[in-house]
Amino acid sequence: MILERVRNQFIRLLCCRMYGVYPFYPLSYPTLFMIGVQIAYFAIIGTQMFMIVLSIFLFYGIYKENVAFLVPWVVGCMTFMALEAMAMVYSNILRDHVNKQFDAMCKAEITFLIPRILLNCLCIWCVLRLYHLLRAGVTWKGAAPIEL
């Protein structure tokens, strides 16, 4: 009896250390996964907020025709697009593991993610073309007035 209790305590401690699962394994199992889903959603929201800031820099760079403001948008867009895709896949896997099936929320998130990724790739291509045109010296500003 005592050996069995010691063995159970050791197994609980080992599971907690190795897998991050607390001793109340059956009760806390879905809760641990849902915390991971919430963290993934916060990561997605954070990437979207930072992309808003980078888009303001992009608009300013286009307005001033300054390539230094275009580069952070391109790098940030590629980085955050990958982070958002990873966070969405991670949250869907965790949520679907708890639910034991792919639910409608998963299908809706993926349905909106794929066109957004394609649209972001198109936007990156357009901004890179603008970047190369500005580096080549093309300008859209009006000619300077000539004084006689």
Short description:
Helix content is 82%, strand content 0%. With 148 residues, it is an all-alpha fold.
Radius of gyration: 25 Å
| Overall pLDDT confidence | 82
The coarse silhouette is elongated
Number of strands: 0
Uncertain runs with pLDDT below 50, 5 residues or more? none
| SS-derived structural category | mainly alpha
First-last Cα distance: 106 Å
Count of domains = 1
Could you state the order of secondary-structure elements as H and E?
Answer: HHHH
Could you characterize what this model shows?
The longest helix is centred in the N-terminal third of the chain and has 40 residues, at 25-64. It is built from 4 helices and no strands. It has one domain (30-136). It is mainly α and 148 residues long. It has helices spanning 2-19, 25-64, 70-99, 104-136. Pfam families: DUF4728. InterPro entries: DUF4728 (IPR031720).
Write the layout of secondary structure elements.
Elements: H1 2-19, H2 25-64, H3 70-99, H4 104-136
